[in-house]
Amino acid sequence: MNKVPMTVAGEKTLRAELEQLKKVDRPRIIAAIAEAREHGDLKENAEYHAAREQQSFAEGRIKEIEHKLSHAQVIDVTQIPHTGKVIFGTTVDLINVDNDTKVTYRIVGEDEADVKQNRISVGSPIARALVGKSEGDEVVVKAPSGDICYEIDCVHHL
Q1: For the chain, give me the number of helices (H) and strands (E)?
Q2: Among 19, 60, 91, 110, which lies 20 to 30 A Cα-Cα from 137?
Q3: For residue 46, what pLDDT is reported?
Q4: pLDDT at 1
Q5: Within this chain, do residues 71 and 83 fall inside the same structural domain, yes or no?
Q6: Are residues 99 and 144 in the same domain?
Q7: Helix or strand run (H / E) with residue 155
Q8: How many other CB atoms are there within 10 angstroms of residue 36's CB atom?
Q9: For residues 109 and 143, is the Cβ–Cβ distance under 8 A?
Q10: pLDDT score for 157
Q11: Does residue 97 share a domain with residue 48?
């Protein structure tokens, strides 16, 4: 099985979600199912079916998180020597060569990715183009709107 790369913060977030699901959501759903059963006929009991659907989702998510955590490769980029190379967990300042605009991305695990917060998945096209490159290098990212050329301005180990 392949390791699932994640940052220290990503692992912490997944563990918190798992605890929430197990200690808060699961008991609440079980209570809702028990209450809905008391209402009689289960065939036409919307509350019962809704609670069972919630239970199915929660149990599936618990299994998914437990699987990811059991295969997690937690990478603390602050413990890795700074070489100016782009690696998992680093924050990268880029300059668009065509229009001189700047953008900053942090390369994170799949579950941590959030483009609105400039966190991109290590498997994204931009991250794949950047990983292994160094400050000063130019990279071409294949985007749906066409190729975009970036210069790597600075690599941060935050």
Answers
A1: 4, 7
A2: 110
A3: 85
A4: 57
A5: no
A6: yes
A7: strand 146-156
A8: 18
A9: no
A10: 84
A11: no
Tokens at 119, concatenated: 């966190």
Counting as low any pLDDT under 70, the low residues of the chain are: 1
Let me know whether 24 and 93 are in one domain: no
- Count other Cβ atoms within 10 Å, centred on residue 20: 12
CA 121 – CA 114 distance, rounded (Å): 8
Q: What is the pLDDT of residues 71-109, one digit of tens each?
A: 999 999 889 988 889 999 999 999 999 999 999 999 999
CATH of the domain at 43: 1.10.287.180
What domain range includes position 81?
Answer: 77-156
Q: What is the 3-state secondary structure (H, E, C) of 44-67?
A: CCHHHHHHHHHHHHHHHHHHHHHH
Percent of the chain with pLDDT over 90: 75
118 φ, ψ (degrees, to nearest 5): 60, 30
Quote the tokens at residue 33: 């199912």
